[in-house]
What does this fold into?
Amino acid sequence: MTVVEGVHENHGATFRERGDRRVVDHYGRPERAHGAVRSVVGVMEVCAGVVVVTGDDRLEFVDNAVSNRVPAADGAGCYALLLDPQGGIETDMYVYNAGERLLLFLPPGRARPVADEWREKVFIQDVEIRVATDEFGVFGVHGPKATEKVASVLNGASAPDGALSFVRGSMGDEGVTVVRGDGLAGEEGYEVICTAADADRVFDTLVNHGLNAAPFGYRTWETLTLEAGTPLFETELDGRIPNVLGLRNALDFEKGCYVGQEVVSRVENRGRPSRRLVGLLPESVPDGGAAVFDGDATVGEVTRAAPSPTREEPVAFALVDFDCDADRLTVRVDGEEVGAAVTDLPFVDGSARSARLPSY
It folds into this structure.
């Protein structure tokens, strides 16, 4: 369940399942909330799994397990992947150095499997790993006025400047950690982290105090990230090779650390990927998994599609053959093929650029 489910119900929320968590789908008018985020600022509860890693060898242990270099300095974070022995993505995560502990934020349903797997790999290292999902509330603040919003309610610190850096302060009487985001919605963004006991008051502060912000749910988050050209774990990343997604901007391919039996640099050097992620402008909205055609030949499949509230037309991600250079393809919708123009990503330019925007 969400940390502040009763508060969401008071706002008229409709819920759905995401991984092992119950999350807000929308508050009744997801398109209107989408517009509020694009024009001003919005707030959502982020339902993530949380793993805490402590012990003298915590940095070395996690650094050896994930794709990106874990920052050694308190107050810094990184985006990283955990890869299987074949180089496929098992999960993505954000790793934050919080002094004597590392905080890892993972997709719902991935925290416990990762913690269990890592515990089996601890031998003589001084490392302790535990799942702490229920101990935290996490809220995303996104929009061109996100910095102004955070500044209007954060006490004891200024909003952090660098992507994935964070500061500690308070909102009202509640202690918070504020992380500068990496632009996944295509807008300025922050995540506000607090204890679960304080989450209802922090959410109220973010929505109703200082500069007002519109609450929004995951349906709006999915259209925002689609417009921004951001591949997500559940629809684009899970099980796929990183260079197929064009994640050069988000990952450190020169690190060369072992993840299972695979080396990240070896994944990068496997040669040109067989497929690549592209943007489509289909004439109607296809389902995820819909076939993509170039003439009579099947060249790929749709991963995610939705009506774009900003463009007022359907948009979609598709994984297509790397050598496919057609400007116009077709997709199968309700058993029929409809036209789909190939377009550059992002679909919408906002106040920030997504760090996961594909680059080949």
